[in-house]
């Protein structure tokens, strides 16, 4: 059963990953390329080749591989990213399915939401998606530690949120939704006030930075939705129904 | 299985269904995958994923 779930998860991840790969190819690659040249242009114009400039080094560093290679590998990475998320999603879903609120396919979307909060949203509250040419505080090791720490915090918040929902509403009702929202809103509020500014977008126009971050958030959310949707569809196709659902059906329609 | 399943039941089911060998294989594979991810910190591989890392919001310059 575990292996069946994993198999469907990887397949769902592949479906979502291919869609994400297409997004990488037709939207993200050209956009990032454009932002890269924009950042480079401003750099050269503004500082007039300042010596030992950090972001200048970063820009040079980014071109250690040819742009064509970067484009192709980035598309491939997008597909693999989907497969990784799909596999992890399925394993988590197998073990947590009985504990998730909602019935049937709604459970998959609840878990996808928790995953999105854990893997992306929580870390982004401290380390927002960086645009090409952005200046980042701290060294990469510290930033990685912050990222992982925020993932753990995000998972905790998601768990508390789901626990609160089940505890208060017994699985139904508006009060439950409000209770579930409290930990998430608190996390956002606390980080908005207390988190240090790590990403400095520099000379990139603010509107472009906002658009880029919006695209990043939406594309990752779409990836999770697609993983959950495809997984639910594959489960239904395989005729899998949880014991809880079967029992509720027996109670409602004898 | 007419009553409500719990997370505990799922762990039990997984334990019954998978042999020690299979579990070891899964753990070894996860360890290998982690190794591969760390290996990708190699500058060439890391740089060629540059656009993806920006697009996914996971960046380390």
Q: What integer value in Å does the Rg of chain A equal? A: 21 Å
Q: Give the CA-based shape of chain B.
A: elongated
Question: How many domains of chain B?
Answer: 1
The total beta strand count of chain B reads: 0
Taking pLDDT < 50 over at least 5 consecutive residues as the criterion, the unreliable ranges of chain B are none
Distance between the termini of chain B: 52 Å
Number of strands of chain A: 2
Topology order of chain B in helix (H) and strand (E) letters: HHHH
* Unreliable sequence segments of chain A: 47-60
What integer is the average pLDDT of chain B?
79
Helical content of chain B (DSSP H or I, runs of 4+): over 70%
Strand content of chain A: under 5%
Overall structural domain count of chain A: 1
The most extensive interface, with participating residues per chain, is: A-B, 54 and 31 residues
Percent helix among the residues of chain A?
Answer: over 70%
Distance from N terminus to C terminus of chain A (CA atoms, Å) equals 28 Å
Overall shape of chain A: it is globular
Q: Overall mean pLDDT score of chain A? A: 86
Which structural class do the helices and strands of chain A define?
mainly alpha
Which terms would index this structure?
heterodimer; A: 254 residues; mainly alpha; two-stranded antiparallel sheet; 8 helices; globular; B: 61 residues; 4 helices; 72% helix; 0% strand
Q: Your description of this structure?
A:
- The complex is a heterodimer of chains A (254) and B (61).
- Mean pLDDT of chain A is 86; it is low at 47-60.
- Chain A has one domain.
- A two-stranded antiparallel sheet of chain A has the order 1-2.
- In chain A, 78% of the residues lie in helices and 2% in strands.
- Chain A is built from eight helices and two strands, in the order ααααβααβαα.
- Chain B has 61 residues and is mostly helical.
- Chain B is built from four helices and no strands.
- Chain B has helices at 7-17, 20-39, 43-48, 50-56.
- The interface between A and B is large, with 54 and 31 residues.
